[in-house]
Design brief:
single chain; about 450 residues; mainly alpha; two-stranded antiparallel sheet; two-stranded antiparallel ribbon; 4 strands; elongated
Length: about 450
Amino acid sequence: MAQLWGGRFTKATDQMVYDFNASISFDKRLYRQDIAGSLAHVKMLAKQGILTEKERDQIIAGLEGILADVENGTLAITSEYEDIHSFVEANLTERIGEAGKKLHTGRSRNDQVALDMRMYVRDAVKETDRLVKELLKVLYRIMEENLDTFMPGFTHLQKAQPVTLAHHIGAYFEMFKRDRSRLADIYKRMNYCPLGAGALAGTTYPLDRDYTAELLGFDGPTMNSMDSVSDRDYVIEYLSALSTIMMHLSRFSEEIIIWNSNEYRFVEIDDAYSTGSSIMPQKKNPDIAELVRGKTGRVYASLMGILTTMKGIPLAYNKDMQEDKEGTFDAIDTVNACLPLFTGMLDTMKFNKDVMEASAKNGFTNATDVADYLVSHGVPFRDAHGISGRLVLRCIAENKALDDLSLAEFREESEAFEEDIYEAISMKTCVEKRLTKGAPGEAAMREALEIYKKYLESDH
């Protein structure tokens, strides 16, 4: 078929060149945004007297008909067309005649594709935000139900100090809350309309760009026509935010994989989110967690791809920028698939509370509290640290927890120990006496939960 730009050329494009240049195979998913942008454009053209009201109404009816037919499957978007813009315009002209040829008045494919992509990413940001909020709701529920579920906290993958499951999950709540904040920032920064920028230098037609922006739900028009058609910062920012979300999901997945192992047995993943082995009947594999962890690299690759593409592009539009779409679409699809699967896995997961608490005790996570006890009884901290360390060595040799030592055994190392040592180093005491903001103590955690509750109820 004839190209939108074909008037300058006297011979047909080589088929291999055409196929290499065409973007319809992937930009066809922009059809809703392309039609919405065209509807706003023709309304503005008629308002400015560039089109008649009759032409406006004909074009609107034609565009709405194309949208309906694509949605119901009676009109296919095929490789016969170079891109989504030529698909829409060609079908419009076929349906309504000469008026369809006026659709492109006052615009270029450069500002058109900039608009389509910006609107698509804007919609995707909102959907990702919704999915992250659903995950936060599940995290909140788990926290609320596990204020007294004691477990070891780790540094260097070694048991360090006792915390609660609520506190551990709260760390991820903070991560994903920051992710939503990043998404909100991106949305606010990108929500300006490039339509009307033309190819790079605006247009001689008296367009009302503020009106077009208003019709499309933007905060206003972009302020520089060259930047309007060449800006892909919002794509890079969104892919960066998606990469950070995947990094957080991957860290969480790694912990779930560890917790699911026979050595830990902290969790049991629901059958609906697990698979077995084709040869080993005892296996129950954390495949969702592993796939989320694996797909993180895929999203990172999309970010690195567009960063590398954009790094050497002079102003204004260059064809290289067509490479902004496939990686972005893939990253959006990946993240927006991983989030609900991960949320479902977490929501149905069983936490083995007794195993977690036993692990905290047997890992000497209360060793610091032994030292703190001695300090409170007049022993210098450096001496107290050494005494606690020797007690740990004794427990390791005798396969005991600190709680299992008799008072006589404690007093062999220091006469400062009294009967109240057992209360002082119980998991409950060790956790609950940590009351500073952000600590795992119940009072501090309840304060955090109240803040999180208000956050989830508000419209962020």
